[in-house]
C-alpha cells in the first residue's frame, strides 16, 4: 500500500507538471545568476577570438568591444557584433510539446539559429521580449546547438534613432534571460485581464489547438479561493475567449494598499485538464478627467515620481530581481508613489515589485528624439503590451520621449491594450496632458493658474551633481500639491548612471555630466537630496512650529495620503539632551484625519520637558515603516551657548598695544587683532599656533570696521569699533575673557538689496582639517533651496573632498553649507578649537566644493556659489541650479537673499554673536 501511495503521488505531480507551462533556463536568471556561453566579438577589446561570456550580460562589462555613450559619434557608426554559441539538451518528456525559445531582451538585432537552421526572422529592437517556435528544429536524442548573432547597432535606421542615438549608455549583448518554454499542443497562449474597482472582471484568453472550455478561479495571495469558478466554452481551434464576471467588494490595488489576486486559468478537452496558467493582477480603475486630473479608483492622485533606468555599474542594463526589490524599496522609502520607465520597458521583475509594493508606473516605448518606423514600432509595441499588460501598477503608456513619438502608434496602444490606459507623449502637450520637461517654476505656475490642461512634467528638476531633485522641490511641490490642475511629476532621475570601465582599471564613468543625475549614486549611495525628497513627499505633513515653553503638545498635521486615514499610522516622540544627557521617549495616538484633511497630533510631554534640547517626532506607516523623523529645537542657541562657554579664569586678561595691533593673553591663549581693521590675525595657545585667521570678512558686503579702541573692564578686555553711517557702518566688538574664550559681536549690513549670501568668513588652510563635530541640522550639506531633510543633532564628519555625482561617491560630503549651527568643534592636524553661537539660524560653511570644469556643461546653470575664505558663519546662503535651470528659476527659495534698505542705522543691522574657544590642547 505504501508503494502504491508513492506511485500515485508521483503520477499526480507528473500530471500537474504536464498541465503547466514548463520552463528551462539556458542562461542565468539575472546579473546575480549567469551561465557561461561561448562568445566571439568582431570589434573592440578581445575581438577576433573565441572565449566565454556570462549570459545574461552586456559584453562591454565582460571585457569585450567598446564603451559608447549615446551622443558619441563613434556609436552611431558602430559595427560591433557578438556571436554566441551554447549547447543544450531538452527533456525527453517534451518530445510531443510545443517548444518556444524566449529572449527577454537582446541589444540590438538578434539572428537566432538552432542546429544550424534559422529560428525565424531577425529581431530588431533591444528592450522587448520575443520568442520563436523551435519545436521542429530540436533534436531529442542528442545535444542541440544554439547560435545567436547580435548586432550592437541595428540594421534598421529607425531602431537606432529610437534606441541608440540617446542620452544614455549604449551596450551590446544578450542582457536579459533566455529560456525554453514547453507547452501542451492544446494550451493557453495568452491572457489579458481588465479588473475594475467596481468588481467587474473581464479576461480575454487566447487558446491554441482544439479545446472545449476554459475556466478561471481567483485566489488571494494566501491561496484562499475568492468568488466562484467562471466557465466559458471554447468554440473552434485557436480561439479568443472572452470571460466576464463580477466580484463583490474586492480589495483594491493602489499605491498605498497594493492588494493583489491570482487568477488561475484552466483549459479542458472534455473533462480533461490540458493546460493551466496563473496570472497575478489587481482590481483598480484608471480614469483621466480632462481639465481636472488623474483618478485611480475614483480618487484624484498626484505623481510623486522619479525616472528610472535599468542599470547597475558592474553589469550595465543587466539587472536582477534583488536589484528591482532594492530600487522599489528605496523609492518607497523616499515616499514616492510613482516611477517612469525611462526610456524603454524594464525587466518583468521590476514591474512585479511595483505591483507588490505599490508604485504607479509609466511604461515607455523607446524613442529619444527619434522614433521607430510604423511597422517596427507596431511590432515592438505588440511585444511590450503582451509582456506588461496585466501589471496593475502600469497606469500610463508613454509613446517615446522628447520628440521620439510616432503618432501613428497612438491608436495601436488603444487597439492592443484591453484596459485602455492613457497614452502620454513625454515633453509634449498631448491628450489633455502638459508634460513639458524642465520648465521653470514660473512657467509651471502659469499653466496651473492660467491653463486648462493637466500639468504633469515627465521630467523636472534635472539632478545633475548636487543640483536639482531636492533643490527646488519644496517650491515646486507646494504649488503642485495645492493646484487642482497639477498631477504631480517625475524627477530626473533615480540613480547616477556611472558604469565601471573594465578598459580603464575599473573607474566609474558618468560620461562627464551626462550620467551624474541621480538621487542616489551608482551603487545606490544616498545623496543629500534623498532625504529632502523623503521629507517633502512625506504623506504626513507637519506644519512648521516653534517650540516654546507655552507649547501644549499639539502639532498641526495634514494628511497627504490619497487613500489612507492618518489613524493607520503610528507616532513616537523623543526628548534629547545633546550633551549626552538623558533621553525620554513616548508614543502619541494617531489622529483620525481623512486624506487631504487637517488635524492635530497631541503629544503628552512630561513635566520638565523644557529641560531638554531637541524634540523628535517620528511617523510610521501602516506597515511600520518610518516615513520621516522631524526635529524641533527646544533649547535655542543662546541657551546652549551659555552652557558651553566659560568666562571666568585665574587672572585678568593681559592687553598690549603696538602701532599696528592689539595683543591679548588669557589662560594660555594669545591673540593678535589688527588695530585698524579689527580682524583676527593670529592666535595660539600654550601648545602652539592655531591657524584660524583673517576674519571676520563680511560677505557679501563691505568690511569697513574702523576706529578701534581697547578697554580693560575688570578682568576682561573689550576691543570695539565705532559706528559711522557714511564710512564704517559695520561694527565689530571682541570680548576676551579671563578663561581664554573670545566673543565676537558683529553688526553688519548687506552690500546690496539682493545677495547670493550674507555672513562672515575666516581663513584656514584646508589641508590642515581632519574632522568636525557640530550641533546642527545634518549630516548633509544644504542649499538655500534645499533646506529640508536634515535632523538637529550632534554630528561627526571626517574631512573629505568628495563631490556629489563624482568618484569616489562618498557621502555625506564635507564641504559646503550646513544648517542651524549651534556649535562646532574643529579637529585639525594641529590644535583643535571650538566655535559656539548664540544667534539662531546660522549656517556653517566648510570650504568650497568644486565640480570639475566640464566642457559639455554648455548652459552653466548649476552655479555653486560660495563666499571667499575657508570657514564661514552665514545668515544667508545661495541656492543651487540644475543642469537645465539656474537656481533663481527653481522658485522663490532659489532666488537671491532679499535684504531691504537698513538705512545704515545700528538698530537695523544684521547681528551675529560667536564665541571662540582656543584653549584646547592637541
TrEMBL record:
It catalyses: Hydrolysis of terminal non-reducing beta-D-galactose residues in beta-D-galactosides. Its EC number is 3.2.1.23. Residues 52-184 form the Glycosyl hydrolases family 2 sugar binding domain. Pfam families: Bgal_small_N (PF02929), Glyco_hydro_2 (PF00703), Glyco_hydro_2_C (PF02836), Glyco_hydro_2_N (PF02837). Residues 188-284 form the Glycoside hydrolase family 2 immunoglobulin-like beta-sandwich domain. GO terms for cellular component: beta-galactosidase complex. The keyword Calcium applies. Residues 715-834 form the Beta galactosidase small chain/ domain. Its cofactor is Ca(2+). Residues 291-505 form the Glycoside hydrolase family 2 catalytic domain. GO terms for biological process: lactose catabolic process. The keyword Calcium applies. One of its GO terms (molecular function) is carbohydrate binding. Keywords: Calcium, Glycosidase, Hydrolase. Belongs to the glycosyl hydrolase 2 family. Monomer. This is beta-galactosidase.
